[in-house]
Amino acid sequence: MFHGDDAVPLIEVRGAEKSFGAVRALDGADFAIRPGECVGLVGHNGAGKSTLVSVLNGGLRADAGEVLVGGVDRREAHSVAEARGFGMRCVFQELSLCPNLTVAENVRILHGGLGGWGWRVRAARLVTAMLDAIFPGHGIDAGAGLGSLSISERQMVEIAIAFLEVDAPVRAVILDEPTSSIDASRAADLLGHIRRFVAKGGAVVFISHILSEVLSVTDRIVVMKDGRVVAERASAAFDARGLVQAMGSVAQERAAARDARAVTGPPVLERGGLRVWPGEIVGLAGLAGHGQTEMLRALYLAASSNWRQARDPMVAFVAGDRQVDGVFPLWSILWNASLSVLPDKTWWGLIDRSAEAAFGEDWRARIGIRTPDMGAPILSLSGGNQQKALFARALGGRAPVVLMDDPMRGVDIGTKQEVYGRLRAEADGGRTFLWYSTEMDEVRLCDRVYVFRDGVIVAEFASEAVTEENILAASFQGAAA
User: Distance (Å, rounded) from C-alpha 149 to C-alpha 291?
Assistant: First the structure.
């Protein structure tokens, strides 16, 4: 239902500029969203997408440029409160709900008009109805503590709360990596809801590194690079390769299925029907929340139960929920990345800071952490660049086994391709990876795949049998291989 340029934008920025110290996050960016359209916003990590969103929703004031709300210049007065009052809602890549409250209580936090006697019951009814509308069969109890839910369930709750209409109509919703923690079937549910919302005149800004979703659900795509808009066209004018090239990357064809690896000797990991041999990349698949993360945590604790960092650790862990299990928010980028190698950089109880700094610069270049200063706070980075620091921590150490819990959440396609190549090179050198992913393209890169359902392994596939059809069939039916 793309209305084109004749409709007055709900909100628009013109020539937006924003700097954070030496980093120029926005460099004259233009962006508009109109009623009845879904606009895709894409670009590499650090391209300026999150900063632009913060200007749109009033969380940040641009250093220069205009902000128009309903066609009226509000550059000096635009705020989060004004944006919400106008009907704008946001779902951020880093989930923002309160884990110590119930699902229903979180509704009240974001919808202050929901008050009076019995508000918890009304909040529970409203959020359950919206969850039912977007994610049928979700199984989420509105009275449950948010902290007790999986990251996939928390993401579904945050999306449902954003679309709720309590004290004001919802006119525009900004979705920043909304499918990064949910499986393919739930992602399809959300895309269907977006289409229905837009068809009724709503507007959606859809930010995702899953380009197939961007191409399928949007009417128009805006590509950002280095703080500027470098391309803007109707979605039908793009294909996946052209979109990747517009972002500044070289699209790579998916590798052909690998031959099954010959395995000899004892497995390096073994638990609950799962066995992994040295040099393998083994995937954990299935619908989100069916025991994959629990398996990774159990394996990590079994191999590394001591709180003190071993000089020769058996396993390293790359978390997908980096704000909970990954970054140390008060530390620098360097300290977050170098944590795993400190035993090798320490003599007589003292850290060799020059050696640590050299490690940081080496991995900044290797993995492309977008920062001029590794001593800057880790939270100064975009979400995808924070994830790169966690990869540097894991791959820079000497652990022979790396456990990865959906680690590519919010990471751009160019970086993904670089990391995929590095993982394969490390595996060819004998390192072992156990990889849970909600993205089918990543699962299909693995040598072998275990499919989980209801907390147990229901199928195992290898080589050419690692297909989307086989994995989905096992996920929904529990069919054995």
Answer: 13
